[in-house]
Design goal:
Layout lengths: L1 E6 L1 H4 L8 H18 L4 E6 L2 H13 L8 H23 L5 E3 L3 E3 L12 E7 L1 H11 L2 E5 L2 E6 L6 E2 L2 H9 L3 E3 L6 E5 L5 E3 L6 H12 L3 E6 L4 E3 L7 E3 L1 E2 L1 H4 L9 H15 L2 E6 L3 H5 L5 E3 L8 H5 L5
Parallel strand pairs: 1-2, 1-12, 2-9, 3-9, 4-10, 12-16, 15-17
Antiparallel strand pairs: 4-8, 5-7, 6-7, 10-11, 13-14, 16-17
Helix pairs in contact: 2-4, 3-4, 7-9
């Protein structure tokens, strides 16, 4: 099969870990081992998150007072190169006979996307509520809860078109293992004359991965993170993992914005648009998720299955 594998930013940097290069390299070694289990039997295209990393780059940029801080599109490009380099190097160590290449990727968004006035995408470090409110007042940030902590949030417009899609297709067809659309890609707008300009935003990595998977017409989309499955009624006494479901079943539930909701939406879009399969779960369970033995695996609903009847078998 041909598979788009998306690595979550929190799978590459565990929650609460110091954002050191060594910690990220150690986690990327784990990611590369998981990917290596799939590589002998499948063609792979790798996407990765960048939420913690792009937030750190933003803080570093603000610390240098003599120049204006770099905008988020530039920081997205920096993080895409940095993380792509670490993943590419470790994949070459794990798969010495494979060609591995990292491609900086621009993704077109709509300049009038309502996300620009409603920031929801968490980036950077986690803070207590008091710390976050102080930083918001000092730096003009928008902040929002992220689990029990708080983080900075930025605009996250819908991905519309992958500028380098043709180059990605050529690389995949040549047999290369391609790392692309890192951090959701570099957000750009295209003017009526065809000129491209970066914008101040971070595109959701999972929605960008779904767009890439549908555009390449792959067989499967795999979203790997630090959560073992999609849960119905998350955070309540009635929480239960959803193991084998359809998009119709998943859409019966409400999920947390900025975390699980984009993953579920990405999965549903890909399966609905292509008829392929999509899965999500822990990084180390990659092969088991694909075979339906771990995580959440999503397939199209059987023909003639109504949403009501489908909802009766959510955890089967």
């Amino acid at each position: 099969m041909r598979i788009v594998v998306a690595l979550g930013g929190n799978a590459l940097l565990r929650r609460g870990q110091p954002m050191t290069a060594q910690n990220q390299q150690t986690n990327i070694q784990t990611a590369a081992r998981a990917i290596a289990t799939l590589a002998p039997d499948h063609d792979l295209i790798i996407v990765h998150g960048n939420g913690p990393q792009v937030g750190l780059l933003a803080l570093q940029a603000e610390a240098y007072k003599t120049i204006q801080p770099y905008p988020l599109d530039i920081l997205n490009a920096e993080s895409e190169g940095m993380i792509g380099y670490m993943i590419e190097q470790e994949l070459r160590n794990q798969l010495p006979d494979r060609q591995v290449v990292t491609l900086l990727t621009q993704i077109e968004v709509d300049a009038n996307d309502p996300a620009f006035t409603d920031p929801t995408k968490p980036i950077g470090s986690i803070y207590t509520q008091a710390e976050a409110e102080q930083l918001a007042a000092e730096r003009g940030w928008a902040i929002a809860p992220d689990g029990e902590a708080y983080r900075r949030v930025v605009p996250s417009p819908e991905p519309r078109r992958i500028i380098e899609l043709g180059a990605i297709q050529l690389l995949v067809q040549s047999g290369a293992l391609v790392i692309c659309v890192g951090g959701g890609g570099i957000p750009v707008v295209v003017t009526p004359t065809g000129a491209i300009h970066g914008v101040e935003a971070v595109i959701d990595k999972d929605l960008a991965a779904a767009l890439l998977a549908a555009s390449l017409k792959v067989d499967a989309l795999l979203l790997l993170t630090d959560v073992d499955a999609v849960y119905a009624n998350w955070g309540t006494a009635d929480a239960q993992p959803l193991h084998h479901v359809s998009p119709e079943q998943l859409r019966h539930y409400t999920f947390a914005p900025g975390s699980m909701a984009p993953k579920v939406e990405a999965i549903c879009r890909f399966v609905e648009q292509t008829g392929g399969i999509a899965g999500t779960g822990r990084l180390e369970d990659a092969a088991a998720i694909l075979s339906g033995q771990a995580g959440t695996l999503v397939r199209p609903a059987p023909t003639g299955d109504s949403p009501t009847r489908a909802a009766e078998s959510l955890t089967h």
